[in-house]
Amino acid sequence: MEHQEHIIERYERAWIFFGLAMIAVFIILIAYMMMTMGNTNPVSTGRIDPTKVRTEGVFANPRVEQIGDEYVAYIQAFSFGYLPNEMRFKVGRKVTFYITAPDVQHGFQVEHTNINVQVIPGEIAKVSYTFSRPGEYRIICNEYCGIGHANMISKLVVEP
Ligand code: CUA
């Protein structure tokens, strides 16, 4: 009898532990998602007339600006490439990308990061990222955009 009670108690304790462990895993997962997605979740920050992207405003002069310790990059994704076609950043500095398209929908994915933006003509997408490792990062388009889609590749360089 006593022996049986012990078994039941152990069984209950195992279940309570399991329940608590699941709750802990859940909390950790949510915290992790918030941490990793938090600053790289692209947001639309405004609209621009897509027919004027190439001629007016900051996107007519795609560039990287350094402001203090941070960078701001204004990027045009077009059929079939990106402007500026080369970007350089110092490792460990925050980079804020503003991206739009003058023609059709494109993608802006930076390999080996969680930057993955859908670029819609006339929508200004914003995404921030801090590169923690130097090297070359490929930029690829992952929205089908026409005959040159597969060749719509660029790169950025993170310097030590
Ligand atoms: Cu641009 Cu696919």
Automatic annotation (TrEMBL):
Principal subcellular localisation of the protein: other
Class of the enzyme per the UniProt entry, highest EC level: translocase
UniProt keyword Transport, yes or no: yes
PROSITE patterns for the chain: COX2 (PS00078), COX2_CUA (PS50857)
GO cellular component entries: cell envelope; membrane
Entry-linked InterPro entries: Ba3_CcO_II_C (IPR034214), CcO_II-like_C (IPR002429), Copper_CuA (IPR001505), Cupredoxin (IPR008972), Cyt_c_oxidase_su2_TM_sf (IPR036257), Cyt_c_oxidase_su2a_TM_dom (IPR015209), NosZ/Cyto_c_oxidase_sub2 (IPR051403)
Molecular function via GO: copper ion binding; cytochrome-c oxidase activity; oxidoreductase activity
Domain called Cytochrome oxidase subunit II copper A binding: residue spans: 64-160
Protein name: cytochrome-c oxidase
